[in-house]
Design a protein that fits this description.
Layout lengths: L2 H10 L1 H11 L18 H8 L16 E3 L6 H12 L6 H14 L6 E4 L4 H7 L3 H13 L8 E3 L11 H7 L4 E3 L2 H4 L3 E9 L3 H12 L4 E9 L3
Parallel strand pairs: 1-6, 2-5, 5-6
Antiparallel strand pairs: 3-4
Helix pairs in contact: 1-2, 1-7, 5-7
Length: about 230
């Protein structure tokens, strides 16, 4: 299903929204498959999730984002679920990941004009079928009442996969890779920028740099999981 249609349904809310979730995002625990009601995890598996709770270590020297919020480790079951989500078409995992991001927004009492995502190349999106962050952002928008703006940033160059590089190489690898689509949409805005995994912060920082250069007032970086490199 196209993410634009997903976002429209989410914005409508009510019975249509709930019916959509039941059809495409089953009301079962993401970890064990037990029946659940509102959240993605049953009480038992929520305690498993809490075992991965750990604040991110931010090692960026010159930061362009104003804050980074990412409180779960990319390890064990969470790592496996993220890999399944990204590469095995398990889109319904986006519900859990959206709840994780929303929890960070709520606990930190964040306010923003809108949220957006780190983009991927159009050709990559075509072959994968979706940008994994867009589905997460759609869930966050429905849960937080902060609107989701698409096409704020675009990726304009194909670069090496960040996961194959050292911290120093990652920083160089993302230079001049992203651009702002419409500066008027960015000027003076407070923006929440969403990505799936935060490792060295190079990608987030480069995206925040581009947003700030286009006139953004504040950029809050948020990721579902964090890894070390």
């Amino acid at each position: 299903m196209d993410i634009d249609k997903v976002t429209i349904i989410f914005k409508r809310g009510g019975t249509l929204y709930n019916s959509f979730l039941e059809l495409f995002f089953p009301n079962v625990c993401t970890f064990c498959g037990k029946k659940v009601t509102k959240k993605s995890l049953c009480a038992e598996c929520e305690s498993i999730l809490n075992a991965y709770y750990e604040g991110v270590e931010d090692c960026i020297d010159k930061k362009y984002y104003d804050m980074i919020i990412c409180n779960y480790r990319y390890a064990g079951m969470l790592k496996n679920k993220m890999l399944d989500y990204k590469f095995n078409n398990k889109k319904y995992f986006s519900r859990l990941f959206g709840e994780i991001i929303t929890d960070g927004i709520t606990k930190n009492r964040l306010k923003a004009d809108y949220l957006t995502v780190v983009p991927i190349l159009s050709i990559k999106k075509f072959f994968r079928g979706y940008n994994q962050c867009e589905y997460i952002a759609a869930h966050v928008a429905s849960l937080s009442n902060i609107k989701y703006e698409k096409n704020v940033l675009k990726k304009i160059k194909n670069n090496k996969m960040q996961s194959t590089l050292t911290a120093k190489e990652r920083k160089e690898n993302v230079k001049d890779v992203y651009s702002v689509v419409d500066k008027e949409k960015v000027l003076g805005k407070d923006i929440i920028l969403i990505d799936d995994i935060f490792t060295t912060g190079a990608t987030m920082n480069e995206c925040a740099k581009v947003l700030k250069e286009a006139g953004a007032n504040k950029v809050i970086a948020m990721a579902v999981l964090h890894s070390s490199k």
